[in-house]
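hiii so my PI (J.) wants the whole complex modelled not just the main chain, which honestly fair. so below is everything: three entries, each one labled with what it is. i double checked the lines twice but i was tired so who knows lol
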Amino acid sequence: MKPAPFQYHAPHSLADALSLLAEHGYDAKPLAGGQSLVPTMNFRLAQPGILVDLNHIPGLAYIRLGSDGDLHIGAMTRHSTVEQDLLVAQHAPLLHETMPHIAHRQIRNRGTIGGSLAHADPSAELPSVAVALHARFRLQSQTGERWVAAADFYQGLFTTDLTPEELLVEIVIPPLPARSGYAFDEVARRPGDYAMVGVAAIVILDAAGRCEEARLVYLSVGEGPVSATQAAAALKGRQPSPDLLAQVAEIAATDDIDPVADIHASAAYRRQLARVLAQRTLARAFERAAGQ
Amino acid sequence: MTHTINVTVNGTAYQRTVEARLLLSDFLRHDLGLTGTHVGCEQGSCGACTILLDGEAVRSCLLFAVQVDGHELTTVEGLTPDWDMASTHEDLHPIQIAFREKHGLQCGFCTPGFLMTLVPFLAENPDPTEHEIRQAISGNLCRCTGYVGIVEAVKLAAELLREDDKVTG
Amino acid sequence: MTTRYFGKPIRRNEDPRLLTGQALFTDDVELPGMLHAAFVRSDYAHAWLRGIDTSLARDLPGVVAIYTAADLGDYWQPGPLLVNPPPIKDLVFNTATQVPLARDKVRHAGEPIAIVVAESRYIAEDAVDLIFVDYDPLPAIVHLADALKPDASIIHDDLGTNLNAHVIQEKGNYAAAAAQADLVIKRHFDYDRGTAAAMENRGIVATWDAKSEQLTMWDTTQAPISIRNGLAGMLGLSERQVRVIAPFIGGGFGPKIMMFYPEEVLLSWITMRLNRPVKWIEDRRENFFATTQERGQVHEAEIALTRDGKVLGVKDVFLHDAGAYAPYGLTVPINSQCTLLGQYDVANYYTEFTSVFTNKPIVTPYRGAGRQHGVFVMERLLDFAARELGIDRAEIRRRNFIPPDAFPYSNDIIFQDFAPLVYDSGNYEPALDRVLEMIDYKHFIEVEQPRLRAEGKHVGLGLVTYVEGTGIGPYEGAKVTVEASGRVSVATGIGTQGQGHFTSFAQVVAEQLGVPVENIRLVTGDTSEFYWGAGTFASRGAVVAGNAIHAAAVAVRRKILDKASEELEVDPEDLELVDGVVQVKGVPASAIPLGELARRANPMRGAVKPGSEPGLEATDYFGPERGATASGVHAMIVEVDPETMMVQIKRHVVVHDCGTVINPMILEGQIQGGVAQGLGNAFYEQLHWDDNGQLLNASFMDFLLPTADTVPHVEMDHVVTPSPLNPLGIKGAGEAGAIPVAPLFAQAVEDALIDFDVELNEIPLSPNRLFELVAEARGLHGSES
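here's the output for the full assembly
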């Protein structure tokens, strides 16, 4: 299991990296943490002709709070850094809660938030969490930059809105309003495994304690993050109760998702997990929202 | 296409010319002869090849040697830099002593990866609970021990390291 | 003797080397000019080979040689049949053994077709990608039940059938017993295939020295001596020209004893052709195809009982998956047959199996080696019987135990060592009682479980017993030498893969010679150090090699006493061996260090007297007349999340009887590790094949080994019933932890899911599978897929 030959470039500036990508197009592959890319290269499932190593580019790893309360995370920030960062814990607690579910410490020490988001693995945690958080991604190419909402970024199995010339350079997470709650949970065979099903939940209450807005975004039930929009709609304007959550979970599991089977989970079992996780995460999210 | 890299491993500076695709695990084992780092899967799942990159535990099978140019690495050999035939039990690193006392290894193949995972873990968390220990080593597979000896070894290692800390202030 | 070494939890001699990264594993061997090999392996499970185009690969810079079956000439031979079928009446056995490289046909995915030798493994893999094989695919036999269907595609055309073997063994008369029974229970059981997944993959370094005409091979084998003997024969060399070294090995568990793997046959031949060292290190993906596997069986079983739970008879008819070739004879299915009756006194037993070839990797023993299946069937049948009869599950087992005064106890059928299945010794009730006490059985089922169930928790308990036939022959040997330094060296032929032999065997010697364990250096697995032996398998290392070492150590002790009695002019009876010296009892002033005595026994002047030998050294052998039967009881408490079917193991208790214990720390490590593998087998690990015989999860991402946060801390105790079959009274323990976990887990989970009225008659039981089974039990269609 040795990778096929490739050319390696380690640009020391973003401009150089973007120029390499512009020059080589689909032949080139950016190397961030490499924790998904290198195994696929070792299996020779991926054989990029050119690797553009982003690890020597200064200024791509940071976490800072914008004046508007938005949290800005540089794409090359390692998972471990995000996991332990106090700003993240305070301003994006859903992300904070999710981080320990991502693989194992050795992987998190190397893997990056941008790499994981751009890789668009349908069973990865971060894309669904980013969609739930209404995160925005800053994409940069030689010709300029553009912003894409996380929900629009994901276009299919390992497929995103990124062109070969572009890099995802920053993730911006807006703050949640008052009276909001969140939860992340997943069912994996072993802690650290890709989940059979996972879900990120966010709820926002109105002043009367009714659900003003709900977001329920699954992983591992489709080709990318899957938003349970019908379930979310069914919550709108309603007072949360166990019965309601059971109904909503049923809608999510039956109508919102169309999972497929793999060796670890049948479609029916995935629906069951989706149902259970919806109930559990929504209950916790509502509890947190009410407690605010 | 080859690249010349400068890397410090266990305190020794090396300059080598490597092919871009050479995995760091192969570089350490076969180019530098540091065969204590073991390779069990080459896909980042087993943890046997765990080493320290600038003090942090990483899988050496998921890095290319060319990427560590200018960095500092520590491998299992670095835990006992002065080890030789005359060395005794007491010359082992406290984590190694604990592994031996608590039968934390059988075939020993996965062991270097566990040790290197634990060095930064115990530095960060000198008095871990059993749950934290089990989480910390959950990215390292062992097929022989059923982990109990390892968990007990980590508890003892934490104790030994805390005592060392007291002594050295 | 002042210090006891035997039976103590002494820390291991081998650990410093392993902990400091200094221990030599096969892939650590670096030789000047060494080449690297990689294989072209079949993409198909079953296909005719129409052509192999290596031309592009040959042109790749760095490629030194490429060989296909056609290049091997007369060297191309199917491997030997390692174990002949046992002498059982009317036994049918069709031989088909593996070949070095597939010639006209491939019979399982991953079967080697060509070998590339190049300047690096990287280049060798590049070349593999440039070799094009023209296949003519055939239907693959994946499911056991399909193998013998009239229209089944035939795997070995010369045999004209996919039947590997058919065996019937009988004790008493089951049909007559069933006719008299109050209750007969029949069930179907499925036990799926798994893989040992040792952390170190296999590997070989072979080097031919043309000047000394010596072949040296480092090999991750459990049986270096057998490999040497076989290779010498194949290569036309004297056994003295072949040195096989099994250095430190990263776990064996059975598959590393297969003989002869194609890689062993090829690398030794290639180094002689190219006159350069050649290394092949199996990668993890290859390991899922190229290393042998085990465990596929399908049973139709029934049990006949009286209404008070006495077992009158058992009938078991099963299919066994031999894989694509069957070099290991019938060891695995015979073990299944011979382990099924377990600790129970059953007068009537009918057991019949049909072993079939399939288009899957070769099956040879993996930890437990077929014993799991027998225990699974019997223990599950007892569970259902207990439920039907309203008898407590501990009680129904107790009622059927072989009584302690019935040993040696014969089951009248033939075991894997060709001897009748006779249990040497055993005492089963104390272990059961101890387990019940440790898990607080009565309290749990009467108080705790009802209380937790009332809280809505799904908790269950499992309780199973098992026996393990261990320590079979033929023999092992050892040489013990007191060196002039006072250190003692011990050489034995078996390989070691983490069992602590460097320490436990040293303890056996220390006990006789009074030399501290750390001053005893053991050499195992190097054919130049010890010539004779069989290998490490069937939980036999401690029993067979341990007793051989004991015998040699006893002989050296006698030499020491004789020599010292001569030197000190006292009767040998009046001497003692303490801390590396021999002295008159209680008179330290008289002490002669053993090193000094060794020097005097090997003088530079003065002849060795007729009938005596120089030095303080002895070689001896041990061959047991038959295997020793270890036994044990496991109990487990689980909690199941009925919504996700995730299972948490709350407690796991083991009481084990493996006779005399050499080193309890090492023993407990073996059992704890075995339990982890048993749990992996029962809950986490499964090889998923598609209908074409393709393995869908050949990686550690999808073949799930238990991790630190999934394996429980096993609470352990021991009962000691020494074996009368060897001087040390030892029984083997290597496989004990793994054997009974499947029925234990199934029983506990079933108990936890009692509301769902589901029966768990298959292994493995993933959460997904549990969900499906519960859905089926409720009559729902859980089959959307």
